[in-house]
Amino acid sequence: MPAAFTEEERRRITERLLDTATHLFATQGLRKTSLEELTAPAGIAKTSLYAFFDSKEDLYFEAALRQSEQVRRRVIDEALLQGGDTREALRRFLRATVAELDTNPLYRRLLSHPEEMAAVAARLTPERMAQAARGPMGDLLEFLRDRLEGDPEVLLGVLRAVLLTPLHADHLGRELYPAVIDRLIDAVTEGLTS
User: Fold this and answer.
1) Which CATH class is domain 53-193?
2) Cα–Cα distance between 61 and 3 in angstroms, integer?
3) Closest by Cα among 68, 162, 164, 160 to 107
4) Tens digit of pLDDT for each residue in 49-82?
5) For position 133, what pLDDT does the model report?
6) Ranges of each domain in the chain
7) 134 pLDDT band (50/70/90 cuts)?
8) What is the predicted pLDDT for the residue at 125?
9) Helix or strand holding residue 151 (H, E)
10) Is the pLDDT of residue 132 over 80?
């Protein structure tokens, strides 16, 4: 049985586990990250992970949830919902989200490896999964329902297609990528809102 931890130890260890998980899951992924790699920096035994999280997948989920709140603030609150017309709101949203994908390794991993989130979801309780229901994509879907004509799921799919472009920046050519993504965002937002 793992030793009892003080409240201060629990806080410090939890933060260290989340920081380590965010880095390792972003760079190595869920399957290639071992329990030992996650727990060693926190100074706890592998079995002690379960005093903090139900499973490795639960830790991944919590790291993703923490990222989701930060991303939501930047792409929804500070971009999409900052007023103005629908076209400009969508442009701000797409540009902010592309910036996240270019600079936030875990968020990029979540988009580029959906099978990892599916593996995580398979191991979580429905109550735990309900915590993720109000993420950035849920907010965007609500915005699309309120502001645009057409099937909101299709519209969301179009925007997601734009957000796959940063994953192929090397194929487009790093020197052309900024101009390509700007032109694509302008074309899509114009097309969706005209």
Assistant:
1) mainly alpha
2) 25
3) 68
4) 999 999 999 999 999 989 888 899 999 999 999 9
5) 62
6) 53-193
7) low
8) 81
9) none
10) no
